[in-house]
Amino acid sequence: MTDNGTLTAAQRRFVAALLTSRDVRSACRAAGVAERTGWRWLRLPAVKAALVEAQDTALAQVTRVAVGMMTDALSTLAAVMGDGNAPTASRVAAARAILENVLRFTDAVTLAERVAKLEERLGGVE
User: Fold this and answer.
1) Residue 126 — very low, low, confident or very high, per pLDDT cuts 50/70/90?
2) How far apart are CA 28 and CA 12, in angstroms?
3) Residue 76 confidence (pLDDT)
4) Of 17, 47, 54, 118, which residue is the least packed, with the fewest Cβ within 10 Å?
């Protein structure tokens, strides 16, 4: 098959299988294609692009779910931290988790804002 920018049905199955398989061999088996074919397809720009897009979509979905759970997670940690009957080690671990993750989150937000400003200065580069 030549790489004309579109995927065959088998290639789409292969890309989908790559998202849930532990390796290329397993993805090939799941998609019903020969392993050698799978490795060859992975060199095609259209397959590479489809895989990147599929991975980005999956990561975005997981991120949305995780963000949705952040408030509950923080409430749970705060409850443990404030529970005078909880073991000291648990309370300290909860406090540490809150502090460490707030710092990471703050750094990530700050970095995202800085990147957005740089992109704006460069003329809206995506």
Assistant:
1) low
2) 12
3) 94
4) 118
Name residue, tokens 């020969």: 34
Distance CA 121, CA 13 (A): 41
The per-residue pLDDT for 125 is 57
Q: Give the integer Cα–Cα distance in Å for 45 and 5.
A: 7
Q: Which residues of 37-58 are buried (b: 16+ CB within 10 A; e: fewer)?
A: ebeebeebebbeebbeeeeeee
Q: What confidence tens digit (pLDDT) does each residue in 64-114 have?
A: 998 899 899 999 999 999 999 999 999 999 999 999 888 888 999 899 999
Yes or no: say if 80 and 86 are a contact pair by the CB < 8 Å rule.
yes
Q: Phi, psi at residue 5, to the nearest 5°?
A: 95, -10
d(CA 69, CA 115) in angstroms, rounded, equals 26
The two three-digit tokens of residue 100, written as one number? 């460490």
Does residue 38 contact residue 28 with C-beta atoms inside 8 Å? yes
The per-residue pLDDT for 58 is 95
